[in-house]
Amino acid sequence: MKGRVQLTSESPPFYRVALSTIPELVVTTGSDERIELNGDERRLTILPRPPRTSNGPDVQVLRPEPGTVGLVVAASLSNKERDRIEQAGLSWCDARGAAHFTWPGLYFHVDHGTRRATRPSRVPEPGLGVASIRGVQTMLASPEAPWSVSILAKEAALSTGQAHNVLKILERNRLVRIQGVGPRTRRYLRDRDEALEWLASVERGRRRPETAAGYLYARTFDDLIDRFVRRASEAKVTYALTASSGAIALGHPVLTNPLVLQARVSPLDAGQTLGVLGLERLDAEEAGRGMNLELWTDSGELGTYRSEDAGRARVAPRVRVWLDMVRQGGRNADAAELFKEQAL
Q: How confident is the model at residue 117 (pLDDT cuts 50, 70, 90)?
């Protein structure tokens, strides 16, 4: 069965991304949100992921407009969430290639879940630079907190214009709910997991940080952390361990036999920082054979701003540790899921 989904030009970009992972659907743009399957066309009400409660996902709060097909669109949905949504007579679609549409006289269900969706990583988010990403990170670190422009500007070290832009982008992607009016307006994250997955998709579409490889003698990985921290402290280098190195320093050994320590450094770039530490920068061929230290230039202070004191080392904010693992892919992406369960 082939079908068509029509979105408006104001629809959040993520909706187009998620629906485009379904090969059976063609996504177009029009004056309103509609769906057509098997020649039957209906108006759509696109709904956010249901909030989680102690009793599971609360689908009762999802209220589509009368006479429309209620469609929950999310980056991912658990089997329990899918079941609850279907039991409520609603439809759903996630960005992993799965969708379920139903209304009187029609049933459509596909699941291409074994195919990893890559399109979200290629969708740009206008206006979301490194400073704005730092703002979203700050909100994700306190997912239950109320946010205004002034509060976000202060907590994330943003200008009021940048903070306003961050909140507007989150509104456009329907990742926040709004309470109050005027000066009392506050925004709350709707669903932290949804916002994390959205930010990860934004990260995948950005250039990787500039890196520099080096070598520091150490007997074990724990010894490597201690020796690096000692050198950084003596040289007054601002750093934050990240990715699997940050997770291990926080007491979450998400990788077995780690070989390379990763750290974000600021304000000097990664290559300059190696020189300050008195270490030689390895070229690509040498790095492949003997590196055990990888420094990342911390543009926008994504890792070093509000870094966490883990006792033995400074570690990037946990959201950043997770994001840096996710974008590395492979076994690091698997480790990111474990870290998310244990530490986020």
A: very low
**Predicted local confidence at residue 285, as pLDDT:** 59
The rounded percent of the chain whose pLDDT value lies above 70 is 94
* DSSP 8-state symbol, 219: S
Give the residue carrying structure tokens 């970009």. 13
Q: Which of 242, 216, 248 is nearest to 297 (CA)?
A: 242
Q: How confident is the model at residue 315 (pLDDT cuts 50, 70, 90)?
A: very high
Report residue 12 as tokens: 């959040």
pLDDT tens figures, 54-110: 777 888 888 899 999 999 988 778 888 888 999 889 999 987 788 999 998 888 998
Alpha carbon 219 to its chain centroid, in Å, reads: 35
Q: Residue 113: pLDDT band by 50, 70, 90 thresholds? A: low
Q: Which string of b and e fits 25-46 if b means at least 16 CB within 10 Å?
A: bebeeeeebbbbbeeeebebbb
CA distance 141 to 202: 17
Judge whether 130 and 209 are in contact, CB under 8 Å: no
Mean pLDDT of the region 292-317: 96
Would you give the distance in Å from CA 132 to the centre of its chain?
13
Tell me the H-state helices in the chain.
13-20, 79-87, 130-141, 149-156, 160-172, 192-204, 221-234, 243-249, 270-276, 284-290, 318-328, 330-343
CA 335 to chain centre: 15
CA dist 153 and 157 (Å) reads 5
3-state secondary structure of 109: strand
**Spatial separation of the C-alpha atoms in residues 280 and 266, rounded to whole Å:** 18
